Amino acid sequence: MINMEKIMVAPGPVSYPLILSEDKSNISLIFDKEGIADAVADSITSLIKRGLNVDFITVKELLTIHPDLRGPKIGVFRKGSAGEILLKALMDKQNIKGEIVYSDNMQDLLHMLNLGEINSAVISIAMVKPKETLESIVGAPGACGISINKNESIKTVKEAYELGISIAKKNPEESADKIVSRLPITVSKDFVYKIITRAEYFFKPAGNINSFVELVKKYI
């Protein structure tokens, strides 16, 4: 019997290539935050918050500020999210004072913007085409990454991730359908399709990201 590499994965964009290659690779996905696995895939900020090493970067940028960073009220998806942490870092960097308004639904942030309840919002690149991403402004090494618990897993995880990226590029429409059907949360096909066609996916070593790790720790 072949031993499957167990990957604990967050049900966000970091998981999309792995979902597409799961039935074609020697991997098994676990959508959870706790337990034992050979690798963990999550946002880079979440990996840092969980005290895990960020060994590989897999998604470059996912968030943008719409229409631009302005107060006094700035909306963001959920307290403790990657968006909130990066927003706080940017507000300090640009010396912008304002009240952060939280929402459990990113779509609601656009609605709040239209009603004038907030002045700007951190939202996904799936919702608007970004002029500039939040990650790039803050200087983040990427949006998502993978922590490897044993070196023997690297080859299998890398091959699975890169296979999933290739599948998404060849047929994004069909890929979006498959991803939506496999995710343990409800996400629209349109959202997934726009992520896999707009976001930059790859699998590369994280290198030295100590300065960003310290930045994240400052705001968690």
From TrEMBL:
UniProt xrefs under Gene3D superfamilies: 3.40.190.200
InterPro entries assigned to the protein according to its UniProt record, in alphabetical order: DUF3834
Protein name from the UniProt record: DUF3834 domain-containing protein
Organism: Caldisphaera lagunensis (strain DSM 15908 / JCM 11604 / ANMR 0165 / IC-154)
